[in-house]
Amino acid sequence: MLRFASIVLAAALLAASAAVAQASDTDWPQRPIRLIVPFPAGASTDIIARIVGQKLSQGLGQQIVIENRAGASGNIGADAIAKAAADGYTIGLATASTHAVAASLNPNLPYDPIKDFAPVAMLGSQPYVLVLHPALPARNLAELIALARAKPGTLNYGSAGVASLAHLATALFATMAAIDIVHVPYKSSAQSVTDMITGRLDMQFATIAPSLPNIQAGQLRALATSGKTRVAALPGVPTVAEAGIAGYEAALWVAVVAPAATPTTIVARLNRTVNDILNSADGTEALIAQGMTAEAGAPDTVTQRIRDDIAKWRDVAAKAGIRPE
Predict the structure, then answer these.
(1) Which spans in the chain are helix H?
(2) Which of 116, 166, 217, 318 has CA 20 to 30 A from 27's CA?
(3) Residues 182-237: pLDDT tens digits?
(4) CATH number reported for the structural domain that contains residue 161 in this entry
(5) Domain span at 190
């Protein structure tokens, strides 16, 4: 009899705790939510975070507090997301840099890009634009490749550092185009673009939004974009694949993630709210202005993108002999 009573009591307690957990998830959010951005204020990812954060706040009825945790190419911020309390009050942005490139090249990464995160939703992809100094005698991609083949090891290109995504994207381009060009690493893409405008650098796969004014002013020449489809902000510029390098694609994707044990009900609500933003006209237009293509979808699309990109960039780095400094 006592044993039966103990079983009944245990079952009642389990049911009660499950009901409390469900109720707390249903009542979420009851206070401001922290959105960790692994890059500094003013960076393109930060601008995207502020656009999405404002609209998330409207959709969830709570303030979204942006917290920039920059450093180590985004790894410090990503680690902060992974190690935060899984209560739904900390979310963050994952990118191709923090969750694919880092995992491809760094065996001592302090977090697992798959196991330590609950994927919420993909925001979209932000291709690069291949820009040249206008004095370079190449009006299109075919002419640039011909010029590089005629002068192997002479033309140079910039990136935001060794083993950065832009470095890997250019290495992939050079391999597929069968050209020999010299990498010049910088501390930021803004510095390399400045050097290109002044003629000290030949070319670069640059972030689209901050490059648009220079392209429109004729200070840079845009030859191609690096995504699968053309970019709305540069409709007359072909993709690298369209311009002759079939199968080429490289883009900085951005996704919303949470700590791994975040309740599934909260993840599901976040996913619905993010997708509502991406499917709205003003949300799409705001991302297009940042050179991004919105990609609404289920959480598992984020996981699959991470797995695919880890394999892709690990292979590119190995073939190009790229190792992190």
Answers:
(1) 2-27, 44-60, 75-82, 96, 102-105, 141-150, 165-177, 189-197, 208-216, 264-278, 281-288, 300-320
(2) 116
(3) 999 998 878 888 999 999 999 999 999 889 999 999 999 999 999 999 998 899 99
(4) 3.40.190.10
(5) 127-225
Answer for the pair 220, 194: CB distance below 8 angstroms, yes or no: no
From 55, 77, 78, select the one nearest 68 (Cα to Cα).
77
Q: Is 99 helix (H, G, I), strand (E, B) or coil?
A: helix
58: its two tokens:
């409207």
Rounded mean pLDDT of 252-266? 98
Nearest partner of 271 among 258, 252, 254, judged by Cα: 258
The answer to whether position 135 is within a domain reads yes
Q: How many Å apart are CA 177 and CA 69, to the nearest integer?
A: 37
Rounded CA-CA distance 28/266 in Å is 7
Identify the three-state secondary structure at position 67.
Answer: strand
Rounded average pLDDT over 64-81: 95
Q: Looking at this protein, which amino acid is placed at residue 311? A: A
Of 168, 51, 198, 176, nearest in space to 103 by CA: 168
Give CA–CA dist 128/144, Å, rounded: 17
Specify the pLDDT at position 324: 81
Tell me how far apart the 2 most distant CA atoms of the chain are, in Å: 92
Same domain, residue pair 277 and 305: yes
Same domain, 117 and 138: no
Query: What tokens does 269 get?
Result: 């609500």
- Is residue 100 helix, strand or coil? helix
